[in-house]
Amino acid sequence: MLIALITDLHANLEALQACLAHAAERRVSQFAFLGDLVGYGADPAAVTSLVMEHAARGAWVLQGNHDAALFQSDTSSMHPAARQAVEWTRSQLNAEQLSFLRNLPYRIEKDDLLLVHANAWAPEKWEYIDGVMEAMRSMHACKAQITVCGHVHIPTLYHMTMTGKTGEFLPAPEHSIPLSKQRRWLVIPGSAGQPRDGNPAACYATFDTDTQELTFYRVPYDYETAAGKITAAGLPASLAKRLLTGE
Fold this sequence. Notes:
By secondary structure, the chain is of the alpha/beta class. It has helices spanning 13-25, 44-56, 65-69, 80-90, 95-102, 132-140, 223-232, 237-245; strands at 2-6, 30-33, 60-61, 107-110, 113-116, 146-149, 156-160, 166-169, 177-178, 184-188, 202-208, 213-219.
């Protein structure tokens, strides 16, 4: 089974459509959306509806912190731009879309694969995996051989030996990486809808459960149109600029 691992869509319809088309060309048979369907971008309704269509066909979908923020009365802890986007997003979604987002799970387990938005030790608290120490904490908090996380917008791969030694590296796109069963792995595919590593191309990854191969991808898309929609919606200019620069 070839799984597409797509996370942090952030209401970016152009990026999502590009990733889905790219995955279809590779004959992906299972889709996993790891949360933050909304927030920041200008197409929350269209993105949510598209993911709902995939969920109806069996896709795995998680809740992210920006999805959860829609249902919080106090968002004062959020960055002002993110808070403004959340408040605007509430007005753009219908009851069915809101219900879908509200009821998404924090974690999904499939055989030796664990999917979470933020981390495995407390997926509902949205703490970041910023480096090796947090990656170790997350891997020690579960039994899965492979954990896949969103939340961090830069593609990263962590690996831990049987003795607990943990390392990390930034993967190159298009190169298949065999995930040895002699190690444990933590995969961060990067953000489809708002990359932050200086490259505006959308991020996602695939995992082949038959060959145990992981592949990261960068997918070009019309980020100028996506950024223009943010500006037209009256959302903070910084959110549009991020799509143009990938930072």
